Amino acid sequence: MHMSELKPAKDLAAKRVSRFQNEAQDYAEARTALLAEEIEVRRHLTRLAEQRRRLPPGPVVQKDYRFKDENGSEVGLADLFGDHDTLVTYFWMFGPQRDRPCPMCTNLLGGANGNGADVKQRVAFKIIGRSPVERQQRFATERGWRDLDFVQTVGDEYPRDLGLLNDKGDEYPGFTVYQKNGDEVRVFYNAEMPAEAADPGQDPRGAVDIAPLWNILDMTPAGRGTDWYPKLNY
Hints:
Helix content: 25-40%
Largest sheet: 7 strands, mixed
Strand content: 15-25%
Number of domains: 2
Number of helices: 6
Structural class: alpha/beta
Distance between the termini: 44 Å
Order of helices and strands: HHEEEHEHEHEEH
CATH superfamily of the largest domain: Glutaredoxin
Shape: globular
């Protein structure tokens, strides 16, 4: 996207036409100003995506990480690509030590399931957990998920190397995108937003939010709230 081709956001926002006849002048002015900011944010997200796609070749995955698929077969990372050259993975916090999976991971995967069939038209998409695939699938059935593919790590080398499992057994979520060229697998993108980067009054989160929940709540008067989190049951 070339900045020289873009019209000023304020000029575009000024074309706004209210859909409500009784809109007050102060609301109209504030909403027009907000629209200009929304246009700028949309453009920034586009630049962010373009910058991400321009990353130089990432590190080659040198270890032979092993997984078990839904058929019980042991496979390597390269096998998870299937017929695609790109593999999107999400490591969720549902290790054998947990009675139930992480509610935040569950919320994210619920949204991902809604688009899973579409995503898998473009890339391979695997949900990685430390629990047996059958256990992960039982929970998926409970939630009504039909379009997510689960695999189990064989051993803990993979989550430990990626910083998703510490020596105390604490798990952390992970989002990683890989590229394959022949037999070579490289990291394309790994979500690396540190907890220390959280802004005051906010939980650590990456850019952009993948879970639809937070984007929807951001459109509401109360927003995300300060002490509310999704639960497994209500």
